[in-house]
Design a protein that fits this description.
- By secondary structure, the protein is an alpha/beta fold.
- It folds into two domains: 3-154, SPOUT methyltransferase, trefoil knot domain (Alpha/beta knot, 3-Layer(aba) Sandwich), CATH 3.40.1280; 169-225, tRNA(m1g37)methyltransferase, domain 2 (Trp Operon Repressor, Chain A, Orthogonal Bundle).
- It is 31% helix and 18% strand.
- The protein has seven helices and nine strands; from the N terminus they run βαβββαβαβαβαββαα.
- α1 (22-30) links the parallel β1 (3-9) and β2 (33-39).
- α3 (97-104) packs across α5 (142-154).
- It binds S-adenosyl-L-homocysteine.
- S-adenosyl-L-homocysteine is lined by residues 88-91, 113-115, 117-118, 133-135, 137-139, 141-142, 145.
């Protein structure tokens, strides 16, 4: 059974979006994963089909209603659904490669995309939504964030990445950023490819790459080295 993604959103036409192209798009075409979008507005109950209301306690913006988000969840990912349920949220735990790997080994994901100021806290609590963030900045909606999460997962699904080995030395695997890459031409604008890479000595190449990865990580992301 392949990885199943269900995305609840007010903008289903934003999907598959980037996920319909390249690696993820080809995998979707092959059936390595499947995507279902749910228009949250279809679960509105009043004649204006409203999904949001003003924040309790006052303040700017609107809040997505708990009852409507819950109705959309219950119909499309009920109690017996084994998939983890997420709410894309800047308040969530930052997404990591370890979590992505974990998800890729599972049955899929149900993802709620927020809009406006966010979602009524009660549905987050009542439906046990795991809040996940794609970084310390605020997007206008969860759709791009959901595509980030799914893109990261899909490339790890069995059969998706042509060269499976390219996953192993990658950034965040083993707490290091990846070493720099070079390709032909051997000289460009007076810059040459580091000699060791053209030496054919694989032990030396591995050592050089390791060293570069460590140097880069220490410079840019010393926080990773401590992990
Ligand atoms: N008022 C909220 C931000 C709302 S942004 C706050 O200050 O925390 C609107 C929606 O965009 C959110 O509900 C969420 O679904 C999505 N979003 C914004 N930034 C995000 C991020 N960094 N990661 C994941 N989702 C994000």
């Amino acid at each position: 059974m392949s990885f199943r993604a269900t995305v609840l959103t007010l903008y289903p036409e934003m999907f598959p979006g980037t996920l319909g192209q390249a690696l993820a798009g080809k995998a979707l075409g092959r059936g390595d994963w499947s995507l279902e979008t749910v228009q949250i507005r279809d679960y509105a109950t009043d004649k204006h089909r409203s999904v949001d209301d003003t924040p309790a306690g006052g303040g700017a913006g609107m809040v997505m209603r708990a009852d409507i988000v819950a109705a959309a969840l219950d119909v499309n990912a009920g109690d017996d659904d084994p998939r983890p349920r997420f709410l894309m949220s800047p308040r969530g735990k930052p997404l990591t490669q370890a979590r992505v790997r974990d998800l890729a080994a599972g049955p899929g994901a149900v993802i709620v995309c927020g809009r406006f100021e966010g979602v009524d806290q009660r549905v987050i609590d009542a439906r046990d939504l795991e809040e996940v963030s794609v970084g310390d900045y605020v997007l206008s909606g969860g759709e791009v964030a959901a595509q980030v999460l799914l893109d990261a997962v899909i490339r790890l699904l069995p059969g998706v990445m042509g060269n499976a080995a390219s996953g192993e030395t990658e950034s965040f695997e083993g707490n290091l950023l990846e070493h720099p890459h070079y390709t032909r031409p051997p000289e460009w604008e007076g810059r040459v490819i580091p000699e060791v890479l053209t030496s054919g000595n694989h032990a030396k190449i591995d050592a050089w790459r390791r060293e570069e990865a460590e140097k880069l990580t220490a410079e840019r992301r010393p926080d990773l080295l401590g992990k």
